[in-house]
Amino acid sequence: MPHSTSPQRPTLRKKGLKGKIVQLYEALFNGEDPSRGNLNFWSEIFLMKIDVSALESEIGRRSGEELISAKENINSLFQHCLLTLKEKHEIKILNSLQTLCVLVSSVFNHSANINRGFDVIDLLMDFENAEKRMSSLVEGTHDVITGSHPIELKRIALKLILILVTAVDNVSQNTILEYLMMFSVFETCTHVLSDPSLRLHLGYEVVFLLAVLVNYRKYESANPYIIKLSILDDAVALNGTGLVISNALTEFNKSFVSKDERSSEGFLTTLTTMVTSMFVAESDAPGGHRPTDFILLALYEAVHLNRNFISVLTHCHTTQSTCSPPSPHEQDPEAPSNPTPPPEIEAPSNLLVTFLQYASYVLDHIKTDTSYNDAKLCLIILSCICEDQFANAFLHDMNMIFRVPLHRASLRHRKYTLPEQTQPARPLVATLFDLISEFLVSHLMKNLPIDLYVRCVGIVHRILCYQKRCRVRLQYSWSELWSTLITVLKFILSNESSMTSRQEQQPQCQNILTLAVSIVNLINLFITYGDTFLPSPASYDELYYEIIRMHELFDRLYTLSLRHASNAGPWKDAAVRLNSNLVNIRSIINHFNPKIENYRTEHRLSTISQEQVMEVVRSNYDSLTLKLQDSLDQFERFSEKPREISFFTQQVRAITHNCRRNISLDALAQETVLQQFSSIH
To answer: Do residues 97 and 156 lie in contact, with contact meaning Cβ atoms separated by under 8 Å?
Structure first.
């Protein structure tokens, strides 16, 4: 039928047509010189609409040899893009930035056997001129980002830097970053973080950029980004960094609270959520941890490197509802003219409060390697915070109390409650103790995450050392913490056989006796120095009561230490330390048990109450002899090198890969960008 075939003919002819820009791409990569005879060629090409897919496919379909043969043209294209960045014509700046993004990304991702170091640099910008051209690139992108240009133009300039930084999974093998060490983008980043409008649009990308750049060969040579971040004292830039991190964590917390509320609505909702989650990837689900991986890394670097950032962590603020009242033309004219209620003001908060709430969710979900690593990084951050004198002072300040809605897992012996229904306003150190205790009791499983447990005990140890040193007497339910520690020891004894055999099969696992040593050291710290930081003598009496009550457990632990100390194996050293550290606990048990038994006999009691035991304890303190143990109030400060190098290398590799995979060149299409800013001319 003629009416059905005639519309198809022009369509077929159109498919065969090539736009002028596509023909120019082909000529460039064929090694031709399309500028011959046209002095305005390079000016005109950047006035044409870039064809992202055509440029990508043109590079992708070429062999490595063909690309190398077109090296001179590629160098010239790269150079003229940089020259165009210095012009004032925003269309040309836009097209040059888009061309650079596609060119760099496509060359790095080319499947041909091209060395991603010197060969790529030589192909893109000519190795002999690379230093000068990278200087021009950094200067040009800085001028665009900090100048009076539309925000989407600034976003593309920043995307170009991100493409360069994430070109290789292993950041330390990305040779092109050597030029970013020479020509720093740090000042560009701090400018964005200091400007509220830029921070709103570009803050996440800038924080990611800094988190990656400080990890470039950080263990091999002097990294200028580490130095600059460590001495940064610009309060506005630091607060801007904190706001970006806080907003990201807050959004995660809100999504998880919403998920908890849905889960508590009933069986049908829970079943629907479960079925839905089968078809949603972890990174896309509200509970997925991937979107905040780089935020966690950035928070760690800021806390670890910059002491001034501690004040950002603890800076208190109140937040208002972000919902604005409807504008007059949106209101129903027939509706009653009731005054708009003022926005609800929430309780005082800060980045540390937000992070503690976030950590409570992450620590409850460690089933995958990704979520386990997030939990580990959370505990490392908390360890660094607890090593800081100023942070500890804030944590213990009785005048600074907060209500932190910690997430608590649903266990067999307790009903699930929403976080805000359970937490009173208290000093943050009490919340931190609750967070650690919750993790310790809720993850007692045969595949025990020993490394995370050791880190949790280490956090408590750091806090107790501060309390002992500064004689801070915290009003806290200490008996619950002691009960938690004893519960973990009980679990170790009950599952010692299976966990030691697991270590034989997986030598990289932490030694379970190391965990036992850490817990016993905490108990010894309470015994030796508890009178300096426990709130009252009655608390000290309760500690002794708990030790005496659990005397059989400590006897079994002593037997365990003797057995492993007498065998040559991976547990011998830890067993010897455990045996030595049990000396005072055994002295307390051996001193008071006979006296309690005599008291029971004298008073003809079949059972003895807690108060009667504590009465015996109080009346027999004087005759107790304990050994003064060394270094109970000392701890090894956290250091990445050498233990954590592999962990952080893998974290940076993962977030770099994730970022590169999510950078969309399709979004660089000119019509999309032009729609997003109308001020371009």
So the answer is: yes
333: Cα separation from own chain's centroid: 49
**DSSP string spanning 384-452?**
HHHT-HHHHHHHT-TT-EE--------BTTB----GGGT---EEHHHHHHHHHHHHHHH---SS--HHH
Per-residue confidence (pLDDT) for residue 407, from 0 to 100: 86
Cα–Cα–Cα angle for 415, 420, 426, rounded to 5 degrees: 110
Helix or strand holding residue 137 (H, E): helix 130-146
- What is the three-state SS of 305-361? HCCCHHHHHHCCECCECCCCCCCHHHCCCCCCCCCCCCCCECCCECHHHHHHHHHHH
Supply the pLDDT for residue 112.
61
Backbone angles phi, psi at 197, to 5 degrees: -70, -45
> The tokens of 681 are what?
């001319």
| Backbone dihedral region for residue 471 (phi beyond 0: left; psi -120 to 50: alpha; all else: beta) | left
The distance of Cα 140 from the centroid of its chain, to the nearest Å, equals 31
Quote the distance between the C-alpha of residue 315 and its chain's center. Answer: 20
List the structure tokens of 264.
Answer: 């508590």
Give the burial class of 635: count Cβ atoms within 10 A of its Cβ; 0-12 exposed, 13-18 middle, 19 or more buried.
middle
Helix (H) / strand (E) element for 216: namely none
- DSSP H helices, 506-609, are 512-533, 537-549, 551-565, 572-581, 583-602
pLDDT digits (tens, 9 = 90+) for 609-644: 999 999 999 999 999 999 988 889 999 999 999 899
Q: How far apart are CA 542 and CA 519, in angstroms?
A: 18
Q: pTM of the prediction? A: 0.87
**Helix, coil or strand: residue 235:** helix
DSSP calls for 454-512: HHHHHHHHHHHHHHHHHT------HHHHHHHHHHHHHHHHHTHHHHHHHHHH-TTSPPH
d(CA 247, CA 239): 12
Does the pLDDT value for residue 118 go beyond 50? yes
Q: Are 258 and 336 in contact (CB under 8 A)?
A: no
Report angle CA 341, 344, 345 to the nearest 5 degrees. Answer: 140
Is residue 445 a contact partner of residue 495, using CB atoms and an 8 Å limit? Answer: no
Cβ 64 vs Cβ 112: under 8 Å:
yes
Query: Lowest-pLDDT range, 240-254, 280-294, 469-483, 648-662?
Result: 280-294
Instruction: For the chain, state the CA radius of gyration.
Output: 32
Express each pLDDT in 213-243 by its tens digit: 999 999 888 999 999 999 999 999 999 999 9
Tokens of 414: 């307790």
Residue 238 tokens, joined:
């630091």
Quote the pLDDT of residue 673.
Answer: 62
pLDDT in tens, 595-614: 999 998 888 888 889 999 99
Q: Record the tokens describing residue 183, joined without a space.
A: 């020509």
- Cα dihedral 404/410/413/414 (nearest 10): 50
Rounded CA-CA distance 180/163 in Å is 13
Neighbours of 187 (CB within 10 A): 13
